Amino acid sequence: MSMFKDIPVEVGVIYEGERIRRKNMQVELGGPSMKEKFELAKVKPLTEIEDGKITIIGPDIKDMIEGKAYPLGLIVEVAGSSLDQQLEGVIERRIHGYMNYIEGLMHLNQRYDIWIRIGKKAFQKGLNSFQYIGKVLYTLFKSELNIIEKIQITFITDPIKIQELHPQALQDYETRDARARGLKDEEVDKFYGCMLCQSFAPSHVCVISPQRYSNCGAISWFDGRASASIDPKGPIFAIERGELINAEKGEYAGVNEVVKKKTLGDVEQVWLYTAFDHPHTSCGCFEAVAFYIPEVDGFGLVNRSFKGTTVNGLPFSTLADSTAGGRQIDGFHGLSIEYMRSPKFLDADGGWNRIVWLPKEIKDRVKDFIPNEVVEKIATEESVQDIDSLKTFLKEKNHPIVAKWQKEILEVERETNMESSREDLAMPVLSASTLPITAGGFKIILKDAKIYANKVIIKTIKNEKTKK
Ligand code: SF4
After folding, report:
1. pTM of the entire structure?
2. In this predicted model, what pLDDT tens digit does every residue of 367-390 receive, in sequence order?
3. Domain span at residue 22?
4. Ligand 1 environment, Cβ below 6 A
């Protein structure tokens, strides 16, 4: 693109989705080894922004040691007469897409989870300063979102400065999320769809409803609405939710229709509040994974920054690989932390009553949204590290899942008893996949019927009629 003639590498959509392996990286910014990192967009008054200003606080790329990781704080401050704070989330999420347009730069995740790599080849071509990355961001923001009149960008790599600003960034995210709480899915006619992650997962569309926050945790229903209104042809668009097909599972006719269209038929049905059968697809940017644990018939949760192994012996990365790629995998579900705060959180599967394990860090973050009667009954890595001790823990705490196990055992026993008593007392007279019976003006259809009787009387209809 000619507007990037000052940039030493190419810039374009074709570089989206480019992966940079450790052995090919010059430096890493943020990522799993850095505890504190963030990217944040702020809407400011026009008078407070110096348009085009790019500031670097701390070492620049060229000052960094090859192969090492560094913390990063990235602040994009924007101003415009029609801009308001409600657009901060949407502007912030564009950083991900725009940075990925840069040849030899990989940007993953969002907010406090950012993970960036600059490749060796790009560095050798001259991509050795944040000034270049800032210029690309500046140009793309100004050309694609013309409601932004002024923009200034700050890159912080000084660890002390990051430590100072990190709590405020977390507070800003929380304020933004809290604003979106309270509205119910049933109260709106429109949901929003996002296709920003299709470069990584072509069959993925996020369906963002008031009570199901986007997988990346960066876009609320309000953000979706704001984005679709300023850029209706952009990657975030309105979905007429249409007829409610299944309230428990969260299935809407309009959602099915749009998802089918936007995934070119790969995904035909989406159930918003469950991890089974037709769950919402998972791209690669989800903040956490819900994973089914068959041994206890419950779910574990694990977030991206959890470094240990989960209760089933697998780390986040393995579970994420089993989940990602725009697929619908039964029992594996990519989701956001904010969705855990929703009353619709895996509602069709039992919600928090079905969650048996999660990292302590996440439990502390969402504690106020877990029902009081179950919060102490959910294990963390501090109390439980494997499935056997999980079973013991759940029994000791009388987790609601234990009642489910008992109910299932009783049902199996009852069915076994019924089977044997039927077989003891009666003889089978009929098995049929469909058996219509007409009686008293009603037609009763028995499906997969097996009928037992103590005695079988056979009479001809003619005889019956003759009697009358
Ligand atoms: S995770 Fe979903 S909402 Fe977030 S950027 Fe990707 S597609 Fe959009």
Report:
1. 0.77
2. 999 999 999 999 999 999 999 999
3. 2-179
4. 93, 194, 196-197, 206, 214-216, 218-219, 283, 285
